[in-house]
Design a protein that fits this description.
The chain is 36% helix and 21% strand. The strands form four sheets. Strands 1, 2, 9, 10, 11, 12 and 18 form a seven-stranded mixed beta sheet that branches. The chain is globular. β10 and β11 form a beta hairpin. α12 packs antiparallel against α15. The protein folds into three domains: 176 residues, FAD/NAD(P)-binding domain (3-Layer(bba) Sandwich), CATH 3.50.50.60; 92 residues, protoporphyrinogen ix oxidase, domain 3, CATH 1.10.3110; 101 residues, Protoporphyrinogen oxidase, mitochondrial, domain 2 (Polyamine Oxidase, Chain A, domain 2, Alpha-Beta Complex), CATH 3.90.660. It is built from 17 helices and 18 strands.
Length: 455
């Protein structure tokens, strides 16, 4: 049986799919969201245990205009929380936590670099802007501009923690797009930062009960068009648009289909429609990442934990990539007298970590925290999450691959893609991309049907 679904069928209810559906609905376009899981939100969810609150995936939002507009529209402004401490980021090096420089004075005096390393770093302002003809990796770009110490001691641990990636494999133009652009347009990355009259790192925001509040607010707005527990078996083009066959035997039709699923899920869905497009999407690598959230009595940690958290260079020989000091960053993440610390393990540099069982992941995370903070008491395990395929990696050739995907997609009018492999991996990037796509999709709908059919 074939049922008319909506003007736009969105497959996938991660943040990209939910924001896009919300925006389209606001523009007067009818939508239907299909999700194979029993709940929406994808990798954005919060875990509560008593008075502890941990994030299952990414832990915060940057307050960009698109994000703040979304929050205001959903009526969540009163639920916002901002950092309760300075968002200082630390690097574990030489058996101590050292702040990552976030201004000129800090950069010129940081113990993370030798005197020669600092001179070479500041000398970036005088390095000619002559990018090589071949695409550079993140490591190659940073070493060419700032020297090997900055690459190894500062940038590499940040990249492995936040991107789950290997800086020796990631594309500089795709991963550090704004930095590469600053070199091209201003001749120097540091000269560009010199013109920024503020700290180099923007403080994030969240909600009183975690990012789950954002997902719940979107789902509430979309309650009439969200269909969980629906597995898509096939997608095909028909005269009136597209049809989707579900595992239940139901067939849904729509003028437009948006695949708001990760690239490794999107590829197989398109194999019968366009094998070349499917192969390109399926080739985007997503490494596994595990997060372990642990609670400790404050009295057992002598460090004040004033800041965002820490990252760990691979050369330090520890197992974790880094940790977020969750209860320091945002209040009400732990009960009075307790700390909540969320450790990250795995990624492209250590993918086998995610194969370990929960007990071993907790043991390794606790062991690293003991080495850094010296606590002896066993932790409370608040959350242990494994993501077999976490964040898309913008490896060498990613920009060209996305351009090729765009050309192949153009052969299928009414088919759209939306996801972090296109937009950037942060939740703020995803929100902006979905917001920008909504009027494009609406315009396509208007071009196919009379304007009178839409509000």
């Amino acid at each position: 049986m074939t049922d008319p679904a909506a003007d736009v069928l969105i497959i996938g209810s991660g943040l990209a799919g939910l924001v896009l559906a919300y925006r389209l609905q606001k523009l007067g376009i009818s939508v239907c969201i299909l999700e194979r899981e029993t709940k929406g939100g994808g990798s954005v969810f919060s875990v509560s245990q008593g008075d502890f609150l941990a994030e299952g995936g990414q832990d915060n939002l940057l307050p960009t205009p698109a994000v703040m507009e979304l929050i205001a529209g959903l009526g969540l402004a009163s639920r916002l929380v901002r950092p309760s401490t300075k968002p200082i980021r630390y690097i574990w090096s030489r058996n101590r936590l050292n702040p990552i420089p976030d201004n000129w004075l800090a950069l010129a005096t940081t113990p993370l670099l030798s005197v020669a390393g600092r001179v070479r770093c500041l000398g970036e302002m005088f390095v000619p802007a002559h990018p090589p003809l071949l695409e550079e990796t993140v490591s190659e770009f940073i070493e060419r501009r700032f020297g090997p110490e900055v690459s190894q001691n500062l940038v590499a641990p940040v990249i492995t923690t936040f991107y789950g990636g290997d800086p020796g494999q990631l594309s500089a133009p795709a991963t550090l797009k704004s930095w590469v652009e600053r070199e091209r347009t201003q001749g120097s990355v540091l000269k560009a930062f010199l013109r920024i009259n503020r700290k180099w790192f923007a403080p994030p925001v969240s909600f009183k009960r975690g990012l789950q509040e954002l997902v719940d607010a979107l789902l509430l707005k979309l309650s009439g068009c969200f269909l969980p527990g629906q597995t898509v078996l096939a997608l095909e083009k028909v005269e009136s648009g597209y049809q989707i066959r579900l595992s239940s035997g139901q067939i849904l039709s729509a003028l437009v289909v948006v695949l708001a699923t990760p690239a490794h899920v999107t590829g197989p869905l398109l194999k019968n429609l366009d094998r070349s497009l499917a192969r390109k999407l399926s080739s985007i690598y997503y490494p596994p990442v595990a997060t372990v959230a642990l609670g400790y009595p404050r009295a057992t940690i002598t460090h004040p934990l004033e800041g965002w958290g820490h990252v760990i260079p691979r050369a330090q020989g520890l197992n974790t990539l880094g940790a977020i000091w969750s209860s320091s960053l945002f209040t009400e993440r732990a009960p009075a007298g307790w700390h909540l610390i969320t450790c990250m393990l795995g990624g492209a540099v250590d993918p086998q970590m995610v194969e370990l069982d929960e007990e071993e992941l907790v043991r390794l995370a606790h062991s690293d925290l003991q080495k850094i903070f010296g606590m002896r008491q066993e932790p409370k395990v608040i959350s242990c999450q494994r993501r077999e395929r976490a964040l898309p990696q913008y490896c060498l050739g990613h920009t060209q691959k996305i351009a090729r995907i765009g050309k192949l997609l153009a052969a299928h009018p009414g088919l759209f893609l939306c996801g972090s492999y296109l937009s950037g991996i942060s939740l703020s990037d995803i929100t902006l991309y979905a917001t920008q796509q909504a009027p494009v999709i609406r315009q396509y709908c208007l071009s196919q049907r009379p304007v009178s059919q839409y509000r």
